[in-house]
UniProtKB/TrEMBL annotation:
Domain of life: Bacteria
Presence of keyword Membrane: yes
Transmembrane feature ranges: 41-58, 70-89, 96-114, 126-148
SMART domains for the chain: HATPase_c (SM00387)
Pfam families: HATPase_c (PF02518), His_kinase (PF06580)
Residue ranges annotated for the Histidine kinase/HSP90-like ATPase domain, each copy included: 263-366
Residues in coiled coil: none
GO molecular function: kinase activity
Organism in which the protein naturally occurs: Ideonella lacteola
SUPFAM superfamilies named among the record's database cross-references: ATPase domain of HSP90 chaperone/DNA topoisomerase II/histidine kinase (SSF55874)
Protein name: Histidine kinase
InterPro entries: Bact_2-comp_sensor_kinase, HATPase_C_sf, HATPase_dom, Sig_transdc_His_kin_internal
């Protein structure tokens, strides 16, 4: 569990004796933020900032000490780079304090070594001062790096959270497509049958209750197993069959090994609703709707919704214009793209024998599952 940063409205006096970013990032947060290395721009700006200080130190070096100072600068820069990368991967005040203590220890060890190996004089004092400046600049750089990296990670996590909330809201708006006219018409039919004591009222109420039980929980998830979506589809078709009678015939086929395939909730239901509304309801003789899933060679899952209605217009054989014109189909494609990117597909074509075929291609292989869904 991460530790939140203190409020910016108060002074954090602990920075005086324990400096560094106060937020502790978890492994999950670091994985979300990414493990990218510093950009070339950041490294170039750092190098340009170091160059004047290195040049000033070289100009102040006593005669004969330039080679030694050059070697010391190269070693200090390399050590600071390695230490800075260690801090970059997990910026925290604990790591910053560890590096600070290490550099303090190295400085005092170096100072003792100088007093032991070099005789007193200007050269020793210059060397000690120079090394102290290098250690101080390194610690200052670590302090800046830790805060910069921590703020970068926080900004990235905040951006991801905002995107997730936006996707969640969009998903809820898109999935909340239990058609009002479907519910109102179903309730009106049910009320009429109850008033006339029609025997169809009981089965109709059971089917409608099952439909609501199957669909309402769907809106709480971003992805769900295909078997759960199929249960909502089955209940919807039962309700419509109770309303349309013999005018609607349907079948649902879901192989057990496809039951755990994942898809955004309401996607398949939208396709079935369109098949009934545009393929069956307009015809006095009614029609048939078939829902069938199958496995692909690449491990993906294909789900088809087939009706024997009038099909797509002759001037729109691939359903492009219809898909963009109908809010449900447009939302379906948008939500597939949100969940799977360009790997998921929704196609609409006319069947050779008549009617429309809507095909969902779900690229994520299903996890092992023992869930079985029977067909009517």
């Amino acid at each position: 569990m991460s530790t939140p940063a203190p409020s910016p409205d108060r002074i954090d006096w602990s920075q005086l004796w324990y400096p560094g970013p106060t937020r502790v990032f978890t492994d999950e947060e670091m994985a979300r933020a990414g493990t990218d290395r510093p950009t070339r721009t950041f490294l170039m700006i750092t190098a340009i900032s170091i160059a004047p200080a290195a040049q000033a130190l070289l100009q102040q070096a006593p005669d004969g000490e330039v080679p030694r100072l050059t070697g010391l600068l190269v070693a200090a820069i390399f050590a600071a780079y390695r230490a800075g990368m260690w801090l970059w991967w997990r910026p925290s005040r604990r790591r910053l304090m560890v590096l600070t203590l290490i550099y303090m220890g190295v400085f005092f060890t170096f100072a003792l070594g100088l007093r032991w190996r070099m005789s007193p004089g200007a050269a020793r004092e210059w060397m000690l001062t120079t090394f102290g400046i290098l250690c101080s600049l390194s610690c200052l750089g670590f302090w800046f790096l830790s805060f910069f990296r921590a703020q970068q990670i926080e900004a990235r996590l905040t951006e991801q959270d905002e995107r997730a909330r936006t996707r969640a809201v969009a998903g809820q708006l898109a999935t909340a497509q239990i058609q009002p006219h479907f519910l109102f018409n179903s309730l009106a039919s049910l009320q009429h049958w109850v008033d006339t004591r029609d025997d169809r009222a009981g089965p109709m109420l059971a089917s409608l209750t099952g439909y609501l039980r199957a669909t309402l929980p769907l809106f709480e998830r971003s992805l769900l197993p295909l078997c759960d979506e199929v249960e909502a589809v089955r209940r919807y078709l039962e309700v419509m069959q109770a309303r349309l009678g013999a005018r609607l015939q349907f079948s649902v086929e879901l192989p057990p090994d496809r039951a755990a395939a994942l898809l955004p909730p309401g996607v398949l239901l939208t396709l079935v609703e369109n098949a009934v509304e545009h393929g069956v309801s307009p015809r006095l003789s009614g029609g048939q709707v078939r829902v069938q899933a199958r496995a692909e060679d690449d491990g993906a899952t294909t789900v088809q919704v087939v009706d024997d209605g009038p099909g797509l217009p002759a001037d729109d054989p691939d359903g492009t214009r219809i898909a963009h014109g109908r809010v449900g189909l447009a939302n379906t494609r948008a939500r597939l793209a949100q969940a799977f990117g360009e790997r998921a597909r929704l196609t609409l074509v006319n069947a050779p024998e008549g009617g429309c075929v809507a095909t969902l291609y779900l690229p994520v292989p299903p996890a092992p599952s023992t869930v079985l869904t029977s067909t009517p």
